[in-house]
Design a protein that fits this description.
Layout lengths: L14 H10 L7 H5 L14 E7 L5 E10 L4 E12 L2 E2 L4 E2 L8 E5 L5 E5 L9 E5 L18 E2 L5 E6 L13 H4 L47 E6 L6 E2 L8 E5 L5 E6 L14 E6 L6 E2 L6 E7 L5 E7 L7 E7 L5 E7 L12 E2 L6 E7 L2 E7 L6 E2 L6 E7 L6 E7 L2 E8 L7 E2 L5 H4 L7 E7 L5 E7 L10 E7 L13 H8 L3 E6 L8 H4 L9 H16 L3 E11 L1 H12 L5 E5 L5 H7 L3 H7 L8 H6 L13 E6 L7 H13 L4 E6 L6 H4 L2 H21 L14
Parallel strand pairs: 31-32, 31-33, 33-34, 34-35, 35-36
Antiparallel strand pairs: 1-2, 2-3, 3-4, 3-5, 6-7, 7-8, 9-10, 10-11, 11-12, 13-14, 14-15, 15-16, 17-18, 18-19, 19-20, 21-22, 22-23, 23-24, 25-26, 26-27, 27-28, 29-30, 30-32
Length: about 725
């Protein structure tokens, strides 16, 4: 098992910092007031940010449905509606308009096969049915229910039936039923050994399952045995009593009809309740649409998911991941007359190093489309049996939520880049002559000075090329002197790239260079790159981060090497702690939802399997590795003033780790503050309450301004500043 040579504190000092510090020492320091007066992105501009997503093209290609999310500042919440954009000849005609109530939250638009109905999800008042329908053609009118349809609809090809997944008794997923008894359902584990004397008085929890908490849900979760599994249901499209097709001991998902409506394929994992199962074990299943024998279609080791049936009904495409950490591929299998697979599936992405997304068949059924991350971008790809994977869209941007008309003539998607929030785009399926349809953010952005992201690459010691991006300060002047903040993404198997990040622009407006990178361990660069850090978290990627800082200093002499900050969240928070504990180059840090102690994290998180795979076992099997890769093991080396940001209901990286870091730094007299955000989960920076999210942006900015601009550190000694 590799662990990195010499431990985190070995190696020669990084002399580039000394050299760069001497070079910039003769340059003037930019006054804080100049940055404060810049017309850049301010934290409260977040309230004006509009998000576009969940794209659905009508079968005839005459409409695009999509969701629009705005911030209701006065009420500290977000609001989401479904909008329509009329199309003519594949081009926008007229302006987009909302079709759901401005007083209700709506999402997940879906079209009927003939395009006459638009379904969407919306929880309204005390109505237990969250699925609504709108008539798009003809008389229109108010949203309505279809009797028997209580889950997001998947129409049969002829439009006469609707399949969906749902629990037979309508149990709420969060256990939030009416009344105190229903609210507490599942709080006492059905398989508990201890006896509850008086259930009407006991309002605590009796826990026997590891899944008693789930990040993103503030309430603790009811025991899984107290809730019915989601079954496959079918109802007449005209309404009526639904038929339950399955009696599964696991949850059904992702249903899709066969071409003739005789079979429904779906995904499910029969071992989902085996809490000791560390293997990928999901499969593709099939059941007769009128009820009948359940059939498991895949028996390969690993997980198969996201089934998609070709237009002629001859083939089904799906994703296959043999084991955790292995390459995901896109397979196509021929379907026999009985709904079983015929022959061995064909691998469309064999030898292709990237990770494909869920497949969508082309209109002629000869190939499939899918999206994938490629470096810092996300694009649409095309794959066919016997052919090479071909990239359809291009550009320094991230595209998502692809949707296509039934004829294949119209494609719509959302697109974002480093200076543009996501908007709606429409164009032909070949990726040519696309058109930006919405411009929700153009007005307020026109008065904001946003600096573009400039591409930067460097080479690791083993020859691997690593890429990152640099955002200059607003008001940048050649020959000036500016601090820089290194931003670190989470994951670790995710990636930064060409998308709109408010944090970067807030720091740029405050007078900082911002460096953000995709070191080894990031996704979008192939399987080997993504898992190069296995067993070496903080060792391999540390080299890439420090080399990236060196590359930025070489490319931008205006960066003051004596005024470097570091910041990240989740894995980026771990890496922020690690870098401040194992190097001396950073003069200030902001660590968010971070990990400091892998042993305590393992015992309190809702995601133990992550480190069990990455560290080759649980803590009692790899105790030395868990401790050696924990920042708390080296906390005595930290000197950088540190702001700790943590959510009190973060179940992915529980707040106890932030508390350990705070207590250690406080006892060592290192300047430290901890901000605890209430009612917030791991996703605070993305989906948290708007007031708290904006407050977070200001705290990050003000911390770095205080320690890197208003009260800059003294020049470092000439004996070197880094610890390799």
């Amino acid at each position: 098992m590799a662990s990195g040579g010499g431990g985190p504190n070995s190696g020669a000092p990084r002399q580039f910092l000394l050299t760069a510090a001497l070079v910039v020492a003769i340059l003037p320091v930019t006054p804080a007031g100049i940055a404060a007066q810049s017309p850049g992105y301010e934290p409260d501009l977040y309230y004006r940010l509009v998000g576009v997503g969940e794209v659905a093209v009508a079968p005839d290609g005459d409409f695009v449905a999509f969701t629009v999310t705005t911030v209701v500042e006065d009420e500290n919440r977000r609001h989401r509606e479904v909008w329509l954009q009329p199309l003519e000849g594949g081009r926008p005609t007229g302006d987009p308009f909302p079709v759901t109530s401005s007083n209700e939250e709506s999402s997940d638009p879906r079209w009927s096969p003939d395009g006459s109905l638009l379904a969407f999800a919306s929880t309204r008042g005390d109505d237990p049915n969250p699925v609504w329908f709108l008539r798009v053609r003809g008389a229109g009118g108010e949203a309505f229910h279809i009797d028997g349809v209580e889950g997001l609809p998947v129409w049969s090809p002829d439009g006469t039936r609707i399949a969906y997944v749902g629990t037979p008794d309508g149990d709420a997923a969060d256990g939030d039923g009416e009344g105190e008894v229903e609210r507490r359902k599942g709080w006492i584990a059905p398989d508990a050994v201890t006896r509850t004397l008086d259930p009407s008085r006991f309002d605590g929890r009796v826990v026997t399952s590891t899944r008693y908490k789930r990040d993103g849900r503030l309430a603790l979760q009811p025991h899984y045995l107290s809730r019915d599994k989601r079954q496959l249901m079918v109802a007449d499209a005209a309404g009526g009593t639904p038929r339950q097709l399955t009696q599964l001991s696991f949850n059904a998902g992702a249903p899709v009809w066969s071409w003739d409506g005789s079979v429904i394929f779906f995904a499910g994992d029969e071992r989902e309740d085996d809490e000791l199962d560390s293997e990928n074990s999901g499969d593709i299943w099939a059941v007769d649409a009128l009820g009948g024998t359940l059939r498991r279609l895949t028996t390969n080791p690993g997980t198969e998911s996201a089934p998609a049936v070709s237009p002629d009904g001859r083939y089904v495409a799906f994703l296959s991941t043999p084991a955790r950490g292995s390459q995901t591929d896109l397979l196509v299998a021929e379907i026999g007359s009985d709904g079983h697979f015929r022959g061995l599936p064909v691998n469309l992405t064999e030898g292709w190093e990237l990770r494909p997304g869920a497949p969508t068949w082309t209109a002629d059924g000869t190939a499939v489309h899918f999206s994938a991350g490629v470096g810092g971008d996300s694009h649409l790809f095309h794959g066919a049996p016997g052919g090479l994977v071909r990239q359809v869209t291009s550009g320094a941007r991230r595209l998502s939520s692809f949707s296509f008309s039934a004829s294949g003539g119209v494609m719509a998607f959302t697109g974002t880049d480093a200076v543009t929030p996501a908007e709606l785009y429409v164009g032909p399926v070949d990726g040519s002559s696309e058109q930006k349809v919405t411009r929700f953010n153009d007005g307020w952005l026109s008065g904001v000075n946003l600096m573009p992201a400039e591409h930067l690459t460097w080479t690791a010691e083993d020859g691997t090329e690593v890429e990152g991006w640099v955002v200059k300060p607003v008001g940048f002047r050649a020959g000036g002197s500016y601090p820089m903040v290194l931003k670190i993404h989470g994951g670790p198997h995710s990636a930064y790239g060409n998308t709109f990040f408010p944090t970067f622009h807030v720091l740029s407006a405050a007078g900082f260079f911002v460096l953000y990178t995709n070191p080894r361990g990031s996704s979008g660069y192939g399987h080997d790159f993504q898992y190069a850090t296995r067993g070496q978290w903080g060792i391999v990627d540390k080299e890439d981060y420090l080399d990236g800082v060196e590359a930025a200093l070489a490319a931008y002499p205006e960066i003051d090497a004596n005024r470097l900050g570091v910041s990240g969240g989740s894995y980026g928070g771990f890496m922020t702690n690690w870098l401040t504990a194992t190097t001396e180059i950073f003069s200030a840090a902001v660590t968010s939802r971070s990990i400091t102690n892998w042993e305590s994290w393992w015992g309190t998180s809702d995601a133990q399997r992550l480190t069990e795979y990455e560290f080759y076992g649980p803590p009692w099997e790899q105790r030395d590795l868990y401790r050696r890769l924990s920042p708390i093991s080296y906390v005595e080396n930290v000197t950088a003033p540190t702001l700790i940001i943590h959510s009190e209901n973060d179940y992915r990286t529980p707040i106890g780790d932030g508390e350990q870091w705070f207590m250690s730094l406080k006892k060592r007299d290192v300047p430290v503050e901890m901000v605890r955000y209430p009612r917030s989960s791991h996703g605070l920076s993305r989906t948290g309450e708007p007031w708290l999210l904006v407050d977070r942006l200001e705290r990050i900015r003000s911390w770095f301004v205080h320690f890197l601009i208003d009260n800059p550190p003294r020049s470092r000694a000439a004996t070197g500043t880094g610890r390799g």
